[in-house]
Amino acid sequence: MPQQKGVYLNKNSEEEIANLNRMLAALLNYISDDTEEEIDIDYILDKTEGLRDWWNQYRENNKKEIEKEVAKALKELSLEDLESIREQIKEKQDKK
After folding, report:
1. Could you read off the pLDDT tens digit of each residue along the chain, which spans 96 residues?
2. Which of 28, 49, 55, 67 is 20 to 30 A removed from 85 (C-alpha atoms)?
């Protein structure tokens, strides 16, 4: 399992911890609600103040790690898999 890196917000540590605790509590309250049949991630991100911003920042901070993992995995793929990935990349670039 890759080591998780922290996300540093522009707040002092006590405020940051309190904010993360609040978001975690809101998340756990939602997922532990027995009346919810499906977990709607977008609902959680939209209804928990600050969570979507935190999540986007977290994902951006981990982008380089993901790039390294993908590059490493490419060496183990077959030629067919690599060609398929190349086609997907070309299609994405053509849409821009």
Report:
1. 444 455 555 557 888 889 899 999 999 998 888 887 888 999 999 999 999 999 999 899 899 899 999 999 999 999 999 999 999 999 989 987
2. 55
